[in-house]
Amino acid sequence: MELTQLKYFYAVAENLHVTKTAEQLHIAQPALTQSVRRLEHELGHPLFAAKGRNIVLTEYGKYLKEQLAPILERLDTLPHELETLAALERETIHINVSAASTVVTECIIQYRRQNRNVNFKVVQSDSAGMPYDIDISTELRHKGENSSTCIFTERIFLAVPAVGKYAGRRVIRLSEVSDEEFISLADVKNLRTICDKFCREAGFSPRIVFESDNQNAVKNLIAAGVGVGFWPEYTWGAMDSPDVNLIGITDPECKRDIVLTCNENKEDTCEVRRFYDFITDYFEKLFQMSRAVR
Fold first, then answer.
1. Does 135 lie in the same domain as 229?
2. Higher pLDDT among residues 246 and 237, named by residue
């Protein structure tokens, strides 16, 4: 049973006249008659009956017409709905953010001020191979840079209470804090993996005593002397608490890459490319400005 057969049947059922229907559909009358007969054969029931020189619907034909009406009407609206969806999709940028989420959010806000017609769908997913337009991720050392990838490298500092045994320190070996308790940002799997690797290189596993999904909570707990923690150089913002010091780690070298990748997922990638250029420029300015302040 084919869609064309059903459409032909419905048109004949509306007109109850084969010749007139064939003219409307711009097909030969024998071809239309044959299509209806094939449909009757497939269904196993007669759909039309002769009444004098005219035709009428059988009970089976009436039922089929009634059932087809909303389906065919829905099918007629689908092209317009799909075009509307396509237009919306062209104006929607899908972003997967697994690093620097605060910076990305600030960037989107600025971009939207200048481009009110652009929509964003932002997710945080570790799923590989998903069709995101732009991926923002973090790696210890990214390999394979190309024209669709921008890499920004930042140091990872050790955040410690401003008072106590680390007061006044500018640099430190990570092994010196092997006995300390650590405060960590929850749900930042990739950064946690990188920092755990730094600790293993220093010969220990960090004892996590508190995890929070809020950077301010991490900062305040460190300020209160609950423990120490890692603090990325740029993407977590400047340390604005006088009760927390950031110490450079000399051994091992603690750095990570923020990787911005533009994927060619759409037929029309102009809007994605414009935003990708905007966000890479935003990151470049952030990193340059932060270096100047430091």
1. yes
2. 246
pTM strictly above 0.85: no
Q: 3-state class of 149 per DSSP? A: strand
What's the number of domains the chain is made of?
2
Provide the pLDDT for residue 293: 46
- Given a contact cutoff of 8 angstroms between Cβ atoms, the answer to whether 257 and 151 are in contact is yes
Residue 70: band (very low, low, confident or very high) from pLDDT cuts 50, 70, 90? very high
Both 153 and 290 in one domain: the answer is: yes
Residues 133 and 259 both lie in one domain: yes
Q: Are residues 59 and 118 in the same domain?
A: no
Centroid of chain to Cα 8: 43
Instruction: Tell me the one-letter amino acid at 223.
Output: A
> What is the CB-side half-sphere exposure of residue 5 using CA atoms within 13 A?
14
* H or E stretch at 185: strand 181-185
pLDDT band at 127 (very low <50, low <70, confident <90, very high): low
> Residue 24 belongs to what domain range?
3-88
**Which of 88, 104, 132 corresponds to the end of one domain?**
88
Q: What is the pLDDT of residue 186?
A: 77
The residue type found at 44 is G
Q: Which of 42, 72, 88 is the last residue of a domain?
A: 88
Exposure of 222 by Cβ count < 10 A (0-12 exposed, 13-18 middle, 19+ buried)? buried
Question: Which residues fall within 8 angstroms of residue 220, CB to CB, at 6 or more apart?
Answer: 241
pLDDT number for residue 291: 52
Say if residue 167 is in the same domain as residue 220: yes
| CATH number of the domain residue 113 falls in | 3.40.190.290
β-bridge pairing 119-123 and 92-97: parallel
User: What Cα–Cα distance (Å) separates residue 23 from each residue in 145, 177, 213, 248?
Assistant: 62, 88, 68, 83
What's the CA gap between 39 and 64, in Å, rounded?
11
